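Quick one, T. Sequence first:
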Amino acid sequence: MKNIIEIKGLTKKFGNFTAVDRMNLNVREGEIFGFLGPNGAGKTTTISMLTTLIRPTAGEAKIAGHDLATEGVYIRGSIGVVPQTFALFPELTAQENLNYIGKLYGLSDSVIKERSNSLLKTVGLIEHRDRIAGVFSGGMKQRLSLAASIISNPKILFMDEPTTGLDPQSRIAIRELTEHLNKQGMTIVYTTHDMDEADKICDRITIMDNGRIIADGTSEELKEMVHSGYVLEVEVENETKHLIAELKALPYVAHLNQEANILTLTIKGKKDVFYSLSDFFKRRNCQVVEIRRKVPSLEDVFIHLTKKDLRD
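Structure tokens:
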């Protein structure tokens, strides 16, 4: 796949504060690309630059083949944006909002009518097309925002924490709509605090902190950063201190950690490890409650890289 976004040395400073620091990044055409990071990491500032809302201090970028510094008008014609907060007109109906956005993009009345009818059906708002948007629930507002952001059929859709504050049903609906658009060929750039959400829908994920990219890869590649190897947890009933040295000496045990009656073992190159470990403990008359594989989560990766410090 070719790159649809190319970023080199992108930097944004606010006075002496550096919000985004010399970012280098490529986003491939047709992927769902996720931005993760704690508060203040620089995610929203990055999105604001790439969508031409604010000017970079330094660096360069190409969005859908257009230069960020000189071709902003063409970039705006190639992208859609779903912001964190509702940015449409609360005093207008759902249909009137889509009519207005369509006119901004220069669409004809017939195209607006066809597109808005299709989109309102897609986002489940066709029966509410003549209600003013200000009375919509949070989930309905976000679905209307999504419809408005794609009425021009953009190549790239930027979604800045689109499910924040929504109920579980609305989050699932937004996620399913995002996946539906991606299957139709739209590239998605998705920022979120929801690790499970990112794990489920993103093809590739970048983790930011303090304005810099600190990790990039697929979900599985990132998880390997926490546990490199096949990791097992062994829960035992009786004392195992006298067995620790023997376990560490096993050729397929690369690392061992003990917390109370839980042993965490990093395994190397042993296909029948469950049987081997069960036999090991059985022969030593050590009662095993359970042997289970420990699979790290994206949250484990996130905390491992950004630490537990609270952010403003």
